[in-house]
Amino acid sequence: MKLYSYWRSTTSYRVRAALNLKRLAYETIPVDLVAGDQNAQEYAALNAGKGVPMLVLDDGTVLTQSLAIIEYIDATWTQPQLIPREPMARARVMAIAHAVALDIHPVNNLRVIGQLKSRFGATPDQATDWMRHWIIEGFTAVEAMLPDGAPPETPDIAGICITTQAYNARRWGVDLHAFPKIARIEQHCLSIPAIADAHPDNQPDARV
């Protein structure tokens, strides 16, 4: 398999973590979003959304959208289980994953921030304030949704989404002391080599 990925992309981080937890072999193909690699004609022909991640299976099948990719991975390689099979447990876990992937991430996407700067004249400081606002608002909701107690020994899709978004939170100066459940999940997930290896700083295209 080939994973088209950008090192700082939290959506790519999610899929890397899932693939690593499943112990699946894959080749990472860097896509430099800042340089605009995603807009190349060859890439757009494979992924009309012009984003990352994109997973190309051994038979050439192309999968896009991180949560859809993770659902495919979890259904195809069942251990360890990342998405509960029991309907109520699944609904609760997916609600948390969606709170991160659908409420926080889209408004902080590189394309959105680019539009804020180019069309509306947002300064770098204003763009950072924007991102902090939506991370804090989203994490406040997620924190309330999380159960008390220790996180699952094997992270689920919710834990993966939380941990990857926590990377962005720290990057933009959000204090996670206000979110002890989230911080506990992040700490646990990063103690697992499969997820630590998926961290942006450990990618072949990582740079300062």
Automatic annotation (TrEMBL):
Its EC number is 5.2.1.2. Keywords: Isomerase, Plasmid. InterPro entries: Glutathione-S-Trfase_C-like (IPR010987), Glutathione-S-Trfase_C_sf (IPR036282), Glutathione_S-Trfase (IPR040079), Glutathione_S-Trfase_N (IPR004045), GST_Zeta (IPR005955), GST_Zeta_C (IPR034330), GST_Zeta_N (IPR034333), Thioredoxin-like_sf (IPR036249). CDD domains: GST_C_Zeta, GST_N_Zeta. Transmembrane segments: none annotated. Residues 1-81 form the GST N-terminal domain. Gene3D superfamilies: 1.20.1050.10, Glutaredoxin (3.40.30.10). GO terms for molecular function: glutathione transferase activity; maleylacetoacetate isomerase activity. The keyword NADP does not apply. GO terms for biological process: glutathione metabolic process; L-phenylalanine catabolic process. SUPFAM superfamilies: GST C-terminal domain-like (SSF47616), Thioredoxin-like (SSF52833). Residues 86-208 form the GST C-terminal domain. GO terms for cellular component: cytoplasm. Belongs to the GST superfamily. Zeta family. This is Maleylacetoacetate isomerase. It comes from Pontivivens nitratireducens. The gene is maiA.
